[in-house]
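To: structure subgroup
Subject: Chain for Friday's discussion

All,

I'm putting the inputs and outputs inline so they're searchable in the archive.
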Amino acid sequence: MNQIVNNKLRIPETLRKVKNIVGVFSAKGGVGKSAVALQIAISLKNKGFTVGLVDADIYGPSQAVLLKSEPGDLKITDNKIIEPMDKQGISFISMGLISNEKKPVIWRGPMVSGAVMQLLSQTNWGELDYLIIDTPPGTGDVQLTLLQKIPLTGTVVVTTPQNVAISDCRKGIEMIKKLSIPVLGLIENMSWFQPNESNKKYFLFGKDGGKELADEYKVNLLAQIPLVERSEEQELYEIDYIKETFEKLTDEVVLLLKKERSNKIDSIPQTTVTK
């Protein structure tokens, strides 16, 4: 493991003008990681930053559906460089734009890892303030490839409060920490359900599991996000409470990333030139 940690990353040319790369991780599926990654990207864009979003979940890409994109909308140049789509002012790429939405991707681990690296390294990202990577759930080959080969500035981990999700999330945090990647914080999703026009909270999946896990690992609890009642036409970011929650969350992420960059600069050995 030490050998892995000490390896120098070879940054793909297409990522050299990206200032911050943030991986959004979950060790368990179904916790709302993709929706959280999208809301982070939208909130950063609304603050005036240039933002990209990669849907790296090859087996179950969700962002194409969330952003109402169709397969075949993608443009690939003659030199095999992918031009990202522009959705809501966000540069966006997903396997869901390439594969048939009705056919499953039946690939082994190395093929999936290779596809993820292609999406990241063969896309013309240009200059970005933030690139958000919606990673596949779990702690397997693809996650290891991303942690080893992509120069992540930091990670955000998403969980729900119930014991099974917390148990898996613990393994995910351990994996990220062993590879010496900063965990910026933890987001507890589906923390409670509160019907419209009611002050009562229903803790459907347990209470404060994510908060207790954040305390255990001494990482920031970035937010506790409730399940909300909404119409089919209403988007999450159109709900005032959700919008405000993600505005505060992304403010904290921006500050934490600045701190991480500052720490890296401070850790560079200083040399004294003598005459």
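Points worth raising on Friday:
The first helix runs from residue 2 to 6.
The chain has one domain: 16-265.

D.
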